[in-house]
Amino acid sequence: MSEQTVIDERIDHGYTSDKDAYLRRLKRIEGQVRGIARMVEEDKYCIDVLTQVSAINKALHAVSLGLLEDHIAHCVVGAANESRETGNPQAVQEKVAEASAAIGRLLR
Amino acid sequence: MSEQTVIDERIDHGYTSDKDAYLRRLKRIEGQVRGIARMVEEDKYCIDVLTQVSAINKALHAVSLGLLEDHIAHCVVGAANESRETGNPQAVQEKVAEASAAIGRLLR
Amino acid sequence: MSEQTVIDERIDHGYTSDKDAYLRRLKRIEGQVRGIARMVEEDKYCIDVLTQVSAINKALHAVSLGLLEDHIAHCVVGAANESRETGNPQAVQEKVAEASAAIGRLLR
Amino acid sequence: MSEQTVIDERIDHGYTSDKDAYLRRLKRIEGQVRGIARMVEEDKYCIDVLTQVSAINKALHAVSLGLLEDHIAHCVVGAANESRETGNPQAVQEKVAEASAAIGRLLR
């Protein structure tokens, strides 16, 4: 397999190569949300509930960041190559704008 | 029921008066997390997955904010009354510090 | 000075007792913003500029958190005492709602 | 000017093409920070100070987002082209990792 192929492989996959890892993390987050519901059910102290909510926020941030990194490495870089080949910058501009909008939604 | 009792009632409950509402919201968030897992499973476009993650962040923020407001209205105000009665400011200082630490964890 | 007075003193001040500390921190943040402008002026690497922006975010968060803690210890607790005396919960409810709205704006 | 040159131009600049706009925005943020110091100086109500801090947070987020978008459109896409030409994915991988780390610092 040539170096060039290695780049293409890397570029063409996105998050799907880590699909199982993402699914495991989401499963864990789902369990954390259920854990919070249980704490509320049992009238646990509000500050302890809030600490758990912060833990979920952190876990979700990690998932977002992973997806964003995959998006940039996959879709943006793929589109950059496409724009390079076609001489039309539209493909890459669109993907960059999409990534930026997604980051903006996460920062809010 | 006297006005005074109304204040006490309000003060002594915390989030437990809205328990069912919190449980419904957490149930919905749990479903949203499962929905994201399904999107990953089906190789949905990463930006669309990220949009859903942002929606969960927002829903969790709303839950946090509700719990914080309940904590301040309940525990901080309750401790203020306690400190007022005992003449010892420690009770209220502790609750204020706890609230502040919880807000700090959410801001991070 | 009686214990009771100590509580009242604590309650009646808010951030004004730490005014100089806040002013020093804001001065430093102002300098950090000017530092970023200088980096942009000198075409510094964007990632290094972003690292500095993150540092300002952090410094501003610390200021917000301090102000919030002062607000809760000062205005909310003061209003709790007022409501306790007048038997009218409106004063404390208003301050709690204000604090919660301010936290919500910071979380967004 | 050929289409290809247009892409290169876009790629080679980063935030420097909008330098004046960034400097104006940073000037305004600097003024906002000074405005907050003045509010503290004059013992303005803490909630009003906090509202202004939230406004600065928002303005800084907008600057961060602009810089990030420029970084992706400039450095990441430039490195993608370099990796494409040299057949060595390291250049693009480094820039993607840098962008991701910067986003992570902003999300925290």
TrEMBL record, chains A, B, C, D:
What are the entry keywords?
Copper, DNA-binding
Question: What is one Gene Ontology biological process annotated in the Swiss-Prot or TrEMBL record?
Answer: negative regulation of DNA-templated transcription
Query: Please, which domain of life does this record's source organism belong to?
Result: Bacteria
User: Which Pfam families does its entry note?
Assistant: Trns_repr_metal
| Keyword DNA-binding found | yes
Q: Name one GO molecular function term.
A: DNA binding
Is the keyword Cell wall biogenesis/degradation in the record?
no
Q: Which Gene3D superfamilies match?
A: Metal-sensitive repressor, helix protomer
Instruction: Give the protein family.
Output: Belongs to the CsoR family.
Q: Can you say what this protein is called?
A: DNA-binding transcriptional regulator, FrmR family
Origin organism is: Crystallibacter crystallopoietes
Organism phylogeny: Bacteria, Bacillati, Actinomycetota, Actinomycetes, Micrococcales
